[in-house]
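debug: dumping io for the single-chain case to check the tokenizer round-trip. Nothing else runs in this session.
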Amino acid sequence: MSDFAQQKNVHYFPGHMKKALVALMPLIKCSDVVVEVCDARIPLSSRNPLLNQAALSNKPRLLLLSKTDRADPRITEEWLHFFNEKGLFCISANLKGERILSVLDKALMPLVKKKREKEQKYGMKKQPLRLLILGIPNVGKSTLINNLGGRKLAIVANRPGVTRAPQWIRLSDSYLLLDTPGILPMNYEDKVVAKRLAMVGSIKEEVLPIHDLAEELLGFLEKEYPSSLEKRYLISPCKNGTFSEFFKKIAANRGYLLEGGQEDINKAMLAFLKDFQNGELGPLSLERPLC
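debug: decoded output
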């Protein structure tokens, strides 16, 4: 049994996240709408319950399922229906492939209706909407801001922990956006959630055993999306072999060799995880609504 299997909780809470969490409440109070961004491949696991509680301070909220180009479109539609049925305004987008400003304008209209009616009633000048962008690391918060601005306004990288401090960004006369660092709970009691977050890159892979992550992801894809494995690696799923043999074949095909010519299985596993994170295996979802 691996050390991870015996571990009760998974701890991952860098110092800048603690500072950001403390600073979060006053920022929520001065915002008009909280926009929570989560990964469409794992909509439940990529929602931080701490952020959810903080955002419940009578603020209008919009949930955005990002990275839809990497998620199963059928299951994404199921999630949209699921969240909207729960009374949570929810939209989805491929933030790197489509401008969503008009979509956001339409989605926000019912959420800011009271604010606009108040301005009109008292003859006030229409004020820009202050949108607080929240989410765990590496779900696309900064990409959303750049998408809305049509240019690079925030730093983006496919790894957690890039945005380190809150920053207000004037998008236009219509919007002020606040980009915040990704914040995770101090620990995850549910190891399945922790694994899924590491699989999509919201937790650094080094925090969890690579073997556990790669083998669990491979087992899921072998069951739910076997053609994605054959198409990417030109290797049939390992129904008649072992997971280790599958990764040995990837290592051999890509030239991942150790001294002496032995296959570097660890490097093959890491490459496999990166392929999934970057959408190289096709549009795949790890979670679906239980309804």
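debug: round-trip ok. Residues 1-8, 11-16, 155-164 have pLDDT under 50 and may be disordered.
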